[in-house]
Amino acid sequence: MNAVTALPQTPPRRRHFDLSTPHGNGQIAALEWGPEDGRHDLLFLHANGFNAMTYTRLLSPLGDQGLRVLAVDLRGHGLTTLPAEADATVSSWDGYRDDLHALLRALRQSEGEVPRVLAGHSMGGATCLLATLQWPADLGPQRPLVLFDPVVAPPLAPDANRDPSPLLAGALRRKNHFDSPDAALASYQGRGAFKTWPTEVIADYLADGLFLGDDQAWHLRCAPTWEAHNFSHPFRPVNAPIAQLPVPITVLRAAEGSTCHWQDWPAQADVRTVPGTTHFVPMERPELAREVLLAAVQGEREAVLAR
């Protein structure tokens, strides 16, 4: 296999869930590690523009340790087929919240319970937080959260409603035409957002991040226009009771270029800035990321036993 299709020693199982949502129906694709049955210990959501496979080297070792882990491709990303039209389908990240609620209902119906812990990076972390803030009663108790540099800014942040985000501009400029997967890999190594990424992690991202078009060129599964649409509708809580959330919360913020500017966290939240990191904390510090994910799951298991 070439570098782009190579996987870790323990490859994930592919899962697909049929969902009906207010924003259109389709399948949400997911990857699974660890035991094949029982309650999921962890559900993980990726950052804008990426996919579940991007985090396989982060999550696969947790499966090897006995955790049942599910990572999903959000709408407009990876192999998920939910409709993603930038001008019509989802006007804000509320759509991702609704998708997550629908997936959790499907898991609760099939397994009896939702995953023990919800976790995510960047937009994925913000989605977990938003879903928890507006948690439906039929899903049972709210779940502990692990958030890696989530995109959360106060409504009146200094940069609000001013010039377009540089992330949005970068997404619109993103190249979307490659001669081969290896050409895509070579174009990303050591550059831009991928500057601090190990080559193997870029390869994992591209494994589910590209498709061969009718023009015999390779294109991004997450269209740059969709990625830009997400950047144009960031999560800015308005009167959101984040500080009143009762669940355990762990937040790892980037030391440089963080997208997590929220300050009013609950008293029990463990909020840390990780020295020497950029926005891509899970790629740069995977050992620490796994440590906090494992601790969150173990803490929830122990809390259940103590009840």
From TrEMBL:
Which InterPro entries does this entry report, sorted A to Z? AB_hydrolase_1, AB_hydrolase_fold, Carboxylesterase_BioH
Q: Which residues form the AB hydrolase-1 domain?
A: 42-287
Q: What is this protein called?
A: AB hydrolase-1 domain-containing protein
Query: Which region ranges are annotated with the description Disordered?
Result: 1-23
Q: Which domain of life is it from?
A: Bacteria
